[in-house]
Amino acid sequence: MKSYPQINYIQCNNVNESYRMYYTSWGVQENTDKTIICLHGLNRNSRDFDYIADYFVHKGYFVICPDIVGRGNSDYLKDPMQYIVPNYCKDILQLIGVLNLKNINCLGVSMGGIIAMGLIKYSSNIFNSLVLVDIGAKIELAGIQRIASYTVKNNKFQTFKEIASYIKSTSLDFGDLPDEVWESLALNNSIRANDGMYYVKRDVNLSIPFTDPQNAEQALNLQAEWDAVNIPTLIIRGANSDILSKATLTQMLAKGAFVEAVEIANAGHSPFLYSSQHIQILCDFWGKRA
Fold first, then answer.
1. DSSP type of residue 100
2. Fewer CB in a 10 Å sphere around the end CB: N or C, the chain?
3. Is there a domain that residue 13 lies in?
């Protein structure tokens, strides 16, 4: 039977302002001692994980997926220069503390994986295991430039059909998705504003720090973050990824037997995990640690 998420928020703050970070959760936290936290990508939100959460809640997990500030239902920041990974890490630590989350397995997609590695660098025992989806010790410049080309745009659309087509056009690297999955992605990543127009459900200003040349150059090298990872880790790479190269993946696998990898055919950056095949990959990995 299909499950439905609960939506709530916690109060967070940075050096300049206070804001609400919303999260979706599946299951009853008090009824289980197993937790999965899912962290989404740069322009995405928590509802990317509906398929994963719906499966694992029926396997006895409490699944929690935050909308990183500036995305989804979370507040938009007045100061866009605060859209930075250290602040995102601080917010997730706040969420873990407020909800008293225990026994956590983490899945981080793209930017979400950067946040996850940053959290491990801060506290090595914060997670039991880590799944990184198409992100690693080095980010390829070509991929950054491609994502930046549409992240900075605040396009508006007259109809849902138009924005659904746009979201699909910027997400083709997710893989060969069925029509119903594309429709779900469009519904969860669009919003109709007071002016009657449709917009992507994120603050276009979140891209300002991301597109700053100095910040972008620093963001390409995540070796220090990867060096801090010392827990069982699964890396899921899109076979055509322009963010995580095969060379970087090979280097990461040399770290030790606790690191393993799977490639998703016909996908680039980043594979959208929804199918029974994708779920089985996660089951095989987390099942070893159940």
1. T
2. N
3. yes
SS3 204: helix
How many domains does one find in the chain?
1
Residue 180: inside a domain: no
Structural domain for 69, as ranges: 6-140+220-287
User: CA nearest 147: which of 285, 14, 4, 270?
Assistant: 270
Q: Rounded distance, CA 87 to CA 170, Å?
A: 27
Cα separation, 79 vs 218, whole angstroms: 21
Q: Look at residue 163 and tell me if it is in a domain.
A: no
CATH number for the domain that contains residue 58: 3.40.50.1820
| Run means of pLDDT, 10 residues per run, the chain, 290 residues | 84 96 94 94 96 95 97 97 96 97 97 97 93 96 84 89 95 95 96 95 89 64 95 97 97 96 96 96 82
Per-residue pLDDT tens for 211-255? 665 655 566 899 999 999 999 999 999 999 999 999 999 999 999
Q: Is the pTM higher than 0.85?
A: yes
205 lies in a domain?
Answer: no
Which two three-digit tokens encode residue 179?
């029509």
Return the pLDDT at 269. 95
Instruction: Please give the pLDDT value at position 290.
Output: 47
What is the Cα–Cα distance from 239 to 260, expressed in whole angstroms?
15
